[in-house]
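Box 3.1. Reading complex inputs
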Amino acid sequence: MTEIKFKLNNKNVRIEKDLTMRLLDVLRDDYGLIGVKEGCGEGECGACSVLVNGEVVSSCLMPLGNAAGKNIVTIEGFKKTKRYKVLHKAYEDEGAVQCGYCIPGMILASESLLNKNPHPTEEEIRDGLSGNLCRCTGYNMIVKAVQRASKRGEGLW
Amino acid sequence: MPNISKSIPKQDTAEKTSGEALYIGDIKFDGMLHAKTLRSTETRALIKEIKIPELPDGYHIIDYKDIPGDNYVKIIFEDMPVFAEKTVNYFGEPILLVVGEDKQVILDIVDSIEVKYETLEPHYKYTKSVINYEYEKGNADKAFINAVKTINGEYTTGYQEHIYLEPQGVIGLYEENKITILGSMQCPYYIKNAVMQVLNDDGNGVRVQQATTGGAFGGKEEFPSLMACQVAVAAAKLKRPISLIYERTEDIIATTKRHPSTIKFSAAIGPHFTVDAIRAHVSLDSGAYIGLSGVVLQRAMIAASGVYTIDNLSISGDVYETNSVPNGAFRGFGAPQMLFAIEMFMEHIAKELKQPPFEFKLKYVAKKGDATSTGGQFRDSILLKDMIHKVWDVSDYQRKTTEFSQPGSNKGIGMSLFLHGCGFTGSGEQKHIKAVVRLRKNEDDTVTVLAANTEMGQGAATTLRKIAAGILGIPIEQVIYNLPDTDLVPDSGPTVASRTIMIVGGLIARAAKELKEKWEPGVEIIVEERYKQPNFIKWDEDTLHGDAYPAYSWGVAVCEVEVDPVTFRVDLKDLWSAYDIGKAIDERIVIGQVEGGLLQGIAYGMLEVMDCKEGIIQQKNVTDYIIPTAADSINMYTYIMDNPYPLGPYGAKGAGELPLVGGAPAVAMAIENAIGKKITKIPVTPEYIMELMKND
Amino acid sequence: MVNSYIPENYKKALELLANNNLTILAGGTDLMVKTRKWSGLAPGFNGDILFVSQLEELDFIRREKGKIIIGATTTLEKLLHDENTPKLLKMAITQMASPGIRHTATLVGNVGNASPAGDSLPVLYVLNAKIVLESIVAKRILSIDEFILGPGSKDMKSDEMIREIIIDDVEFDFVMYEKAGGRKSDAISKVSFAGAFTSLHGMVHDMRIAFGAVGPTIVRMKEYEARFNETQVWDLLRMIDIVKDLYDPRIQPINDQRSTAEYRKTCALNILGKFLAEAETSAKKGDNH
C-alpha cells in the first residue's frame, strides 16, 4: 500500500492503497462516488468516464497510481458547475436520457469535447462521444443535446 | 383534454444526469455477501463429482440441494434448472454459487473447485425438435397445385445480444418472514412467482422491488428470475443479504439472446404473376432450455406474411434444442427474424418475376377488413399506403432506385414494410396475465399509479402518469409513479410485448375515469381495474386460428447506404421512417424509442456478429461483439402518424418493439440494391458482402 | 498485493528496473484490461509495477536532424495536436480507439503491446521507426521489426524500458492510411495499411508499404519497394495486379472472432490497389514537384 495524493472533485485528497487498483473501484468503493459506473470493464463503453485534468478518461483502465497530482472530476463534482446545468437542461429538453446508465459518462464526455471545441460540428460531436456507448437512444438526441448546449452555453466553454 | 402527444420533461432525467439514480450495483447493505457463479465448462455432460475444498469460515456453497421447492425457474416452459443437478446442457450453465465477504477469497474458492464431468454427445444443429406448431389459412395445397411457378427462398438470422449498458444484477435480502429481491428487471411478478416456487412460499414471504434499471430490451424479462431464485435460496439459507452482479463477459456468454433462425419459404405463383400461396417453415435455435421459445416461435410464425394479405398460407415451425446458451426474449420476439425473411422473400419474388419490387409489394399490402395470417381480421384502419407514400416521397426513393442501379454506383436504397402485433399473443392477457391496476388518490390529492410495470428507459414513469393526469384533469406533478414493489402494487403484468401503454395504460385510463367521478378532495380513494378481453378477440390456441392480437402497429423504413468497394464496409447515409402506433402519448419519448429501436434493428441487420462454435459463444466482450457508437449512427427522419385506436388510452397502440422490427430488412435491402447480389442472411457483414461479390 | 513504484525521474526509473523485476505501466489502456479480475479487486499483475506516465522527461515530440523523436510517455492525444507529428501518424491516431483512450494511451505503449493489429504499427514500420531501449548500464537501438518478435512478444530485457522512438522526418508526396475495423470508430483492426512515397521527376523514388493484422507481425517488404524505383508514377495504376500478386503470398491472415482470413487478405490487397490508384491520381493532380 502506498500513499497517493490527488485532487478529487476540487478537494485535495490522499489515500493509502494498492496503486494498481482501478480508479473506478477506488472512486466507487472508497469515495462512494457511484455516479461512475461499470458497464464493461474493458474501456469500451465509457460508462466509467471521469475527467482527468479536464479530459475524459475511462476510469476502469486507469490505475490509481496514474492519478497522482491530477485533478479528477466525477459527475458528482461536475454537477455543481454552470456548464453542467446547461448540459443537463439540454439533455432534458432533447429527451436524450432513457435508461440513464450511459449518461453520467456521456455528460462528462460532452464536457471534455466542448472544453476543447466549444462549437463542434455534428461529426466532431459524434467522434467526441464515440467512446461512450448508448444502447437506448440511437444517439441522435444526445448529439442534438450537445449542439444545444454549445449554443446556449455561449461564453461558458 | 390537453394534447397528450405534446412532449414533457421526463420524470427521472435529473437523477440520471446527476449520477444520483441508484442501480443495483450501487446499493449496499450491512453484512452483504458477494456471490460468484461456478459455471459449466462442458456443453453437455454428466456431473460425476464436485470436489469442494474445505471452506474458510464465512464462505458457503449454494447449490440445488439448498432449494426448498423444486429446482426449476418458473417461466412459460419450465425446464430451466436453478442450479444444474445431474447434467449440464450448455457451456456456462450455473452449477453453484460461492458466497462470502471477500471477493478474492471467493475467486480462489471458485478456482479450486474441481468438477468431474462425463462428456455426453452434444447437438448443435437443428436436429432435436422440442416444439412444433402449424397453421393454415385458405388452401395452400390447392394453390401450389395450380401454380405456374414455385419460387423458393431460405433466410438465416443470427444471434443478437442485448448489451444493456447495465449488466444483470440482483440482491436477495433476508428478514425473518420475508425474502426480498431487489434488482434490475422488467417483470417483478415473474420474479416473485419464480421465487415463491423455489422457496415453497404462498406469496406472503416474498417481495420484489425494481431498482433503477439500466436498459433491458427483453434481456431482463425472464432471465433475472434465474438469478433471483439463486440469491433467494442463498439469502434464506444464510440469512444475510446476497449480491449477485454479473460481469460483462459473463453476461454476454451466459444470459439469454435473440433466437438464431432459419426460415424456408415457398411461393406459389399464379398465371398472372400473383403470389397465391406461401408455405413457410421456421426453425429457431432455443439453446439448451426452451423457456419462452414456443411463444417466440408463435410470434414469428404469425408474422409469416408480414404486412401482406396472402390468401393461402401453410406455416409450420420448430424449436430446436441445442447445447448452447438458452435463448429468450429480445425486443421483437420472433418478429425481427420473420420480417427480415418475408421482406427479402417478397423482394426476391418480384425480382425473379422481373417485376419492379416496390409496385409488386404494394399490390399485397393489407387493408382494413382483410383477413390476417391466422384468419382473424384487421379491424382498424391501416395507414400503410399513406406512410409508404410519405417515406417514398421524402427519401426521393424512385429517383434514387434508378440512379443507384446504374453500373458503377456503390449506393443502394431499400424500403421495409413491417408490423407488430400489440400485446400478448392470443388470449395471453385473459388467461395468463389477468392484469390489475390501481390508482390511489391520497389525502393530499396526489394520485399514485399502482402498477407493476417498470421504467427501464422507455419512459413508462412519464407516460403512465401522463395518461392518469390527462384523464383526471390534474397537473402531472400531482401524479406519482414509483419503481414497482410487489408489496405495494398489484400484478399489472410484465413490461413486455409492447403492452405497457396499450393494455396497462388502458387500465389506468379506465381507473382514472372512474376516480374522476368519485373524486373527493382530502380523502383517500382507491380504484381498481381488471383486464377484460374485448369480445371480438377469438383465438384458438391449438390451431393458432383467429385474432392473434387485439391491435397492430405498422411501420415503413427506408435506408440508404454506400458500400465501400475496397473494404466492403457499409456506410449508412440516410434513414427515413414512418410509424402508426395509434397515438403518441409523448412524442419525444416515442421518437426516442423509434431512434433507439431502429438503430438496434439496423445493427442486427449489418453489424452485430455473434458466432457460436461447438456451443461456445465466440464474441465474449464488447470489444468483439460490436454495437454502434455515436459515429456509426446517423440522423433519422421520423414521422409519427395519428391513427387513434379505439381501445387504447388516447388511442395508443404498442410502440416499443415495432421500430426494431423494420431495421434489418431496410438495411439488408439497401445493401442488396447497392451490390446487386441477393442477400439471404443477416448480419450483412463486409465478409458476407465480399463473399457475394466474389461469386460472380 | 504488488508493490508500486512511482519514480520522480527517469534515472530513478532505470535504477528501479535494474534492481527489481518490474512490469512497466504507462497509460494502462492495454494492461489494465489484460489483468482484470473482478470489480473491486486489484488487477492480477504478477509482479511489482513501475509507473512511468508521470515521467515528464519522456513526454515530448521533437524534430532533430531529419528525424522525429517521440518520448515514451507522450499520449496519442498530444501527438494528434502537435505540429511535429507526421500526417501519416495523425491519420492512424484519428482512427485509434476513442477520445477517452487517446487521452491516456501512449504511442510507445501501442508499440510495446506488440499486437499484430496495433493501429500505429504499419505507420511506424513505414517511417522506419527505431526503438531506443535503455537500462541503467546500456542503451540499445533496434529497428521496430527487430524489436517486435511476434504477437505480444518483444526483444526487451527485464532491466530495460523504451525511452523513445525515432522515426523518419520525410515530406512524402503522397501518404495513405487505411483501417478496416468492425465499425467506424473504436474498433480493433481487421486489416490496416500504411503507404507513402516520394517521387522525383515523375518517377517513384521512395516507396513504402506496410500491412497490419494480416500476419503475426507487420508485413513490410523493402525488397519489393525497391522495385518501384524508376517506375513512372503514372504507371502505378497499370501495375496494380502485378503488385497485388507480388504481395499476395506475404499476406497470411488468420480466422478469428473478428473476421476471416479470406476477408482480411482480399481487403488488404484491395487497399493496396486503392493506394496505388490514389497515388497516381494525386500525382496527376500535380501534387508532385
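In summary: The radius of gyration of chain A is 15 Å.
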